[in-house]
Specification:
alpha+beta, Heat Shock Protein 90, binds magnesium ion, five-stranded antiparallel β-sheet, binds adenosine-5'-triphosphate, globular
Length: 141
């Protein structure tokens, strides 16, 4: 199953909707351990918020195949100039509005890396693509 969700830049009322929808779906399936659902949805939330606060907008897709989940986040720029630097804990370019809304600690990408089983990031001024993969494993028991 593949599903797609739009993510609108700067809209803090709708921010997190795509990840909530995914959470509802996973929680409704008794097959998934609670810890697994939590790490998938926390990572999804971080990636979704990044599109809201750092990009001009984009979308996510999720694909669920038994105990494998793949999330893809695409946006239309302006891109991450230095991915290695962006991955560092505490590094953030979040603006004041993002800070007022409680974001901008510079932890999101690092959290996504820790929570997921595989993360790949591609970015150019035309946009950023995060591919995030999860597999039910020992840490979910
Ligand atoms: N989709 C994106 N487009 C452009 N830049 C991004 C994107 N995602 C992340 N970044 C850049 O990488 C930096 C680090 O992202 P990260 O998610 O780790 O922290 P943050 O979003 O600034 O704060 P937090 O996630 O803790 O609220 C951001 O401040 C921003 O400069
Ligand atoms: Mg973030």
């Amino acid at each position: 199953m593949v599903k797609e969700h739009q993510i609108i830049a700067g809209n803090f009322d709708l921010a997190g909707r795509a990840s909530s929808d995914l959470k509802r779906l996973l929680k409704g399936d008794a097959h998934y351990p609670r810890r697994f659902v939590n790490r998938v949805c926390s990572a999804s939330y971080e990636a979704e918020i990044n599109i809201v606060i750092h990009s001009v907008g984009g979308y996510m897709t999720y694909e669920i195949v038994e105990d494998l989940i793949e999330l893809n986040f695409y946006d239309d720029g302006p891109g991450i100039i230095d991915i290695e630097l962006a991955m560092k804990k505490g590094y953030s370019t979040a603006n004041q509005i993002a800070h007022i809304n409680g974001f901008g600690a510079g932890m999101g990408l690092n959290n996504i890396k820790e929570l997921s089983d595989r993360l790949t990031i591609h970015s150019s001024p035309r946009g950023t693509h995060l591919k995030i993969q999860f597999k039910v494993g020992e840490r979910d028991a």
